[in-house]
């Protein structure tokens, strides 16, 4: 077996690729931590309106991920398929972010809510346009197993530095410039310019690989179906989504924990120190995790990185007034596992996409990362909103000494809930089977397929013929618009039954979307309060069902074509056999 040679990228290219994450994450942190307080206390927008706008916009943001990934994979220009999206998306996001934190002084009422919704929504539109291609480009820069960890490790270093800056700088600017409006306008302007310059530098310096950019793309719905047949991807995706369930809790609950459980003299200063300790711990330990991943493998490093967070957050439950020093120490411990949870999983995802290429013959980085981001965002929305509703229901009183039950509610949400999810994520991640040796065999198998050879699947031992091309391949992609039951109906020459099933699914998705949106608006009792748990869940349901409308709408168009041009039953039977012969028995023979 000939193993593809190791290719080490120049440091300048790695830095140019990773540096934009510094500004991108600084913006994300400011929006996650400071936006609600800025608009409620300074712009005087009701909390209920802020919370609902956040949930609606983030649901819209998640919905746009899949189409963006699909479009990025299909873009064909002389500048490549990723870089044009990045070049346009970054300035849209940068300008929108600056406008979001620079509202007119006389803005109030409905106009202020409209300004928030418009600029917030435009920011995420631009953000999606650049971030999905950015992630997809990273997986394409190299095929080397360890070099991918290096690329995403450097990027994660910029992420942590940007997080530290965003956590510490705004409070100091407020004191220096005499108010929050001036502070956030200045921070927004500088960060927006930095974002655009760093991403344009990436566009100028990081070239796309022609052999990837010129490969054919695939339809959206069949691409999703084929991605979900990849068992390794399902394992990594499930672990990622489960981890995201409580990912939004710490930034929301940490200020309440510090102010009402630790009760220091200066809660703002301790919050800054806490955030600096958490992300500083991640930055300082990042080189060690890179070394562990290189020497022990990505799987071992990924599993090991979950341990510090588990004990660090669980330890927070034991703290009380006067335990500021212990809180900082536990924040460093918990933060030391933060970096690998991001860069290692991104590196692992790139390896999983290689496994997909072995089976399909196509590169689909952006579509994989878009689907990945789509589910993760919907999982995060409740974790960023529901804790506030739970806290309110527990008897929380602002600016007062809290009862013991309220304090324990805060402790449980900050410590026990994320710790429990960490255990579940660990158990799921244990099933991830891909090693460096298997990955090298995958890359060699892809090269052999290009020469027309049949190769064994490194994980199952099954023989894989080169992926189909030409008319047979087009027929296979078309048939992947339909489920296993629908393929049976097609093989029995019942295309109209398939059309009725698909139209019924589309109508059901439309009805669910409309019902969820209506019930969500009705459940919002008062614009002056945070929305309840039901409101947030209805918004999430509306966003997911809207995505289902798009999904089944595309399938409806395919079903209409099916009625007009039904394929031969033999072709359908051969396609079903092909699915059973490759993906359906994709069970790894060993776990390490």
Radius of gyration: 25 Å
Number of separate structural domains = 3
Q: What do the pLDDT scores average to?
A: 82
Query: What's the assembly state of these chains?
Result: single chain
Shape descriptor reads globular
- State the share of residues found in helices, binned by percent: over 70%
Strand composition percent: under 5%
The number of distinct helices, counting runs of at least 4 residues, comes to 24
Major sheet characteristics = 2 strands, antiparallel
By helix and strand content, what is the structural category?
Answer: mainly alpha
- Uncertain regions spanning at least 5 consecutive residues: 1-6, 584-592
Q: Taking strands numbered 1, 2, ... along the chain, how are they ordered across the largest sheet?
A: 1-2
Mind telling me the CATH class of the largest domain? Answer: Mainly Alpha
Number of strands: 2
Q: For this structure, what is the CATH homologous superfamily of the largest domain?
A: MFS general substrate transporter like domains
